[in-house]
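= Paired protein data =
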Amino acid sequence: MRRSGEALPSPHTAGGHPPARSDRSDWATLRRLFPYLWQYKWRVAAALAFMVGAKVANVGVPVLLKNLVDTMTPKPDMAQALLIVPIGLLLAYGLLRFSTSLFGELRELIFAKATEGTARQIALEVFRHLHSLSLRFHLERQTGGMTRDIERGTRGVHSLISMSLYSIVPTIIELVLVLTILGVKFDSLFVWITAAALVLYITFTVTVTEWRTQFRKTMNELDSVAQSRAVDSLLNYETVKYFNNEDFEAGRYDASLDRYRKAAIKSQRTLSMLNTGQQALIAISLVLMLWRATSGVVDGRMTLGDLVMVNAFMIQLYIPLNFLGVIYREIKQSLTDLDKMFVLMEKEREVRDAPGSQPLAGADATVRFEDVSFAYEPARPILKHVSFEIPAGKTVAVVGPSGSGKSTLARLLYRFYDVQQGRITIGGEDIRAVTQSSVRRAIGIVPQDTVLFNDTVEYNIAYGRPGATREEVEAAARAARIHDFIVATPKGYETTVGERGLKLSGGEKQRVAIARTLLKNPPIVIFDEATSALDSANERAIQSELKSAAQDKTTLVIAHRLSTVVDAHEILVLESGVIVERGTHAELLAKQGRYAQMWALQKSEAAPLM
């Protein structure tokens, strides 16, 4: 480890916005970590035992050197001593050096499982918790900063454990052993010089480091802003190209980097001041210790061996003491990073299972919206007293202008949000009273914007039912009429679809989404504007696949194009969150109301294309 080095910047925001501050103290963060480590208590005890053994062997080296030097001092029987004593001392010296390394390696080996296991468990809990948070959280967060939080927090577990168990505790043990030997063998001034230097060093380091924290936090936040902007720009690569804004994006990123650079320079100035002060304190203490030891040799109170031992002790203490500032900064940084990840873990779930909730019974797939009202924000209601039923095996379509609340129906049925008034039932059971996983297991969706994983076609289709066989995947692809296209590609089902599925056309992505839903084979299906992004030819081609996917299933069709819903058992016209008309296609046309106006308008718009 480089003495003047510093921990890499850690973002303290989930993507460019001020972070959610935690009032938790460092000790509280450690207590939060302790239960994870307690699972490995016997490994911790064994590691501490090996660590003590390593430090006892390390402190024994200067004592042995003292005996070796004193033994080599000229005596009448010098020849005999040279033949016997030095060989034994030299062998003992080698054994102590080897023991120091051996105990150190055994300590790391025995504790590796605890460190890695703790980091793995915390990272997995964060990952699971993030998936359990509401859609609102994921619409507001930015990926770049949040993933950096998780990465830094996981690394913080390793750093915190290694720094405390491998650096702080061993240093304390070695200091106690050295001070004990100096106090017992020599006068107390050696102890007072060492202790005073240690107290001054720690006080100076802690005070200046606490003061520097403000500069570190600013630098970390600016680093996260730059990271989030870079990720956001790269994710929207095509949009950048469409508007020829490469220079604009580079300028925004460079502005973020420049702010980070200025903050980093300010942080480095304070770091240099801290390092200089630490070195001055260490240098003064070393000079005082050597002055005292040299005076003792001149006065005859100490031997040359004593001088060598004191000097060796100072060298051995100098290294960990010299690193103490870096260690403290690393621990503070690790605690901050770990706390940031704990803040993510403790973020309240907006939608959670009720205590004692059971899975959905699943015998009846009838869906009912009963007097449902909902608003994302209190001042802007989206749905107002909406009631309708989708009988098992039937199809109900919802049409209306953009912003009328159509897609909100699907989000509420999936329980991405909970209704504020009324209730939604499946088979007569309120979906808030059963487990979320069972509700989502019963529903399949073909969304308007199909987003695929950057993996193979087979993986994306099989995502509908992980563990499905290749034959089942191919059967779903055939039913969605995409099998022939897949096998015609050079790599077939092993073809990679690219980031967000961008290597496939809109129609191909929709067919993959249909195949994925067919493979899942749920009793309830949602088509959320599933063809709105397609041209007329592709829309007509996919209609038959959609009808196949809806066969004998409870189906909710959310559509803008009325031509896609003419066969629905019931059509609901939704405007400003209110159902203004309902009935079959023929009944609604006969009413000459809002639906008939929309139908006439869309027919006239399509006429020139026919």
